[in-house]
Predict the structure.
Amino acid sequence: MSRVLVTGASKGIGRATVRELAARGHEVVATARSRAALEDLPTAARLALDVTDQESVDAALAAAGELDALISNAGETLRAPAESVPLTEVSRLFELNTVGALRVAQAVLPGMRARGRGRLLFVSSITGRIVVPLGGAYAASKWALEALAEAIAIEAGHFGVKVTLLEPGAVSSGGSERAATLLSDDDPYLPLARQLAAARAESITVEEVAQAVADTLEDPDPPLRLPVGRPAATLLAARHATADDVPFRIAPLRW
């Protein structure tokens, strides 16, 4: 079995992934900003790790020991029009979702490269390949993550490191409900937000995503990109059927 480090393990997909991997006999190093939030998880180790802080990453990786795989899951989202989303929020999303993921990958890659083997699994999103209105900043952070992960797949694949981007659609993780919505009561984009809420896509459970993560970890020849769940596959098919010279609409919005 593998020794696997999971980031963002205190809730949602990360928490479910820790439980699924442990149930399959893997040694799991669960990490989150707050170590106390990990106390009830069945793990080989529980470590504080803030992916936006280099010292925190260095300390956690030093304590984690030799790793066979990284499940890069830490991330957040928000809703706001591209016209008015605060640039500080855009920077924060990129620092967490994109730079943070790269920061941890950089920490584990030298050891994997030296051993000639390793797995990097990035929990991306279907919005790493499409855009949802009012979610442009989040999607941009995931599109950027996908570019970096594909570069790593080419560069480090030469040394035996395998990379997969897992792309779920809507997930009933609570993350969407916790996400900040930066719209005022008189915002010109409020009618669009209401239409999107009414057209909310079918969701899958965190356990379904965790099973896909574990299955991919155990796959001897994993794909680079893996849409997770039927809704994600349906959206991608619809995107592929849409001409590239027009924006893709995820729903028949009156907008």
Observations:
- The chain has one domain: 3-240.
- The chain has a mean pLDDT of 94.
- The first strand starts at residue 3 and ends at 6.
- The helical segments are 12-23, 54-64, 87-115, 136-157, 175-178, 190-198, 206-218, 230-240.
